[in-house]
Amino acid sequence: MTFQEAKARHAKLVEEIRKHDYHYYVLAKPLISDHEYDKLYRELIELEKKFPELITPDSPTQRVGGAPLPEFKPHQHAVPMLSLDNTYSEAEVNEFINRVRRMLPGEKLEWVVEPKIDGVAVTLRYENGRLAVGATRGDGFTGDDITANLKTIRSVPLVLHGDLDAVPTVLEVRGEVYMTRQGFERLNAERKAAGEELFANPRNAAAGSLKLLDPREVANRPLDIVLYGLGQVAGERPKSKVPSTQLELLDWLKSLGFKTPERAWFCKSEAELFDAIAELDKVRRNFPYETDGAVIKLNSFDQQRRLGATAKAPRWAIAYKYAAEQAQTKLKGITVQVGRTGTLTPVAELEPVFLAGSTISRATLHNEDYIREKDIRIGDTVIIEKAGEVIPAVVGVVLEKRTGNETVFKFPKTCPECGSKVVKEQTADATEGAAWRCPNPDCPAQIRGRIEHWCSRGAMDIEGAGEVLVAQLVKTGLVRDVADLYNLKLEQVAALERMGEKSARNFLDSVEASKQRDMWRVLYGLGILHVGAGVAKTLARHFATLDDVLNASAEELTRVEDVGSVIANSIVHWRNQERNKKLIEKLRQAGINFKSSLYSARPAVGPFAGKTFVLTGTLSSMTREEATAKIESLGGKVASSVSKKTDFVVAGADPGSKLDKARQLGVKVINESEFLKMCQT
């Protein structure tokens, strides 16, 4: 490979890994499996080994993936929260051990093996024995302050157990928040019944739960935590004694009231270490949480300190990841489903095969580009994978079993439901490519999807409106849009197949009751592209009525927190369509509630009311916390990142990248003197 070829491949890998980091760490919606991600990451590492001049400070290999979200206050870690280097190879584990041996020549090496919990890394900071801050890892140096959410996890001690005089003044404990397998299945069942998008796996569900802004909602999620490490430890007391080994730490954490890993293996040799890895693989399915590997750590903290860390990972630990569970089966055919927004999704029809505790007969194929990229053909022997996924995925083809009689799948050019010519549209996130969509709003599949969504528990919560009933209502022509539900007569519904008078009456009673649902449910139920339940609630807090939301300009909508240009433009586009204007009037005539109970008029108070500030650099006259308090006391708001919604960036000494971002966006930048003058006016 020439340098120019390597440079081009490096740029492509960096771009792809950044995209996946964003979807995994920020959106909590992974696009690929961990195994596929690790292959990309390892290729980047190997490329930079061969061409060191390609390494840049912002390469994914030089940092921990992820970024703080703007919804929470940033929390700077006193001790960085690094991730672990991963391997799927026993040979590379041996290389790791030999590397440690070379760095600690002649020293006795002892190891601890722990389960690698598939959760969300967090830190808990205790001051004088009491929980002060709980935060996510974020980018490893700055995370999100999610203290209120972590407090809802019952196994997190708010006050440490035992004699607090024996605990350092500041103690940071680190571990993983996870969702139990049973809790995950129950949560997804509830979301399916409510017509909400399902979580991909327990880790995805845990990450999504921790990002909720309402701790009351978090309290209803089946989250738990396991602690296994230390961050900052400061303020030694006469009676305090911090452990000197990893095994002692686990026992100490237990004594303080923390949950620790189900099992930990103490190993004095490489043979014992590999035996522990093998034993963990046999017993890990009995744990209440998902595990995807074994974490190997040097037991001695003194040796850990002397080995130190790279920019990304400690040199004294590594994660050995088990291969995802896979199976091979025959691809019998590919069907195409049409969603309520018209998106066409290919689904693999498989010869049933048992995998990860269940029999699989269908698997996702994502989109047309995915089928082409993987060269998946009807009749192929395919590899399916289910590593905690709700819907298993086809991840590859067994080419050596290809006979030549397989059929290349041609994506339909017309909608399989209504026959309309389909169009290819760019998704909201350009990095995800394009999707085929049926443009016909009268497509029966879209009508059914819109009505099912409107009736779902998460929207208008109309009981009895399952797929079978909705299909009959659409097929008979009784219902063409959601407003038609409110014109149904008892005799019409009772005459449908499998519907007696009692069932029909119960259904219509629920339809009638839905008229009083809160405005955010109505907005969510309309099925506007990109407007989920969370966005609907946010808008309902900002606008008093549904009319106010729909009459707002895109600029007004984007002033609302969590509402970007994609969502705003989607709302404006929806409301401008004549059929939707008529639908809103039909709903108004039906007596649907358009008022929001979440709305509360907050009069602007103070000279900074309605203004958003971002702080960067060091201020000489006050700390960042004091500056934040000053801004908030004058009615303003402090954000952690710069956007078009930012009014002022206050730049102190040694400002960071936020200053560059402000200049790019044309946001007004003021110095400390100007800021203090504004505070006095």
Structure overview:
With 681 residues, the chain is an alpha+beta fold. β12 (326-338) and β13 form a beta hairpin. The model is unreliable at 65-69 and 428-432 (pLDDT under 50).
Tally the helices.
Answer: 24
CA-atom Rg in angstroms: 28 Å
Q: Record the strand order, biggest sheet.
A: 2-11-10-3-9
For the biggest sheet, the summary is: 5 strands, mixed
In brief:
This protein has 681 residues and is α+β, with helices and mostly antiparallel strands. It contains 24 helices and 24 strands. The chain has five domains: 3-62, Helix hairpin bin (Helix Hairpins, Orthogonal Bundle); 74-321, DNA ligase/mRNA capping enzyme (D-amino Acid Aminotransferase, Chain A, domain 1), CATH 3.30.470.30; 326-431, Nucleic acid-binding proteins (OB fold (Dihydrolipoamide Acetyltransferase, E2P)), CATH 2.40.50; 444-590, DNA polymerase, domain 1, CATH 1.10.150.20; 612-680, Rossmann fold.
Question: What key phrases describe this protein's structure?
Answer:
single chain; 681 residues; alpha+beta; Helix Hairpins; D-amino Acid Aminotransferase, Chain A, domain 1; OB fold (Dihydrolipoamide Acetyltransferase, E2P); 5 domains; 5-stranded mixed beta sheet; 5-stranded antiparallel beta sheet; 24 helices; 24 strands; 20% strand
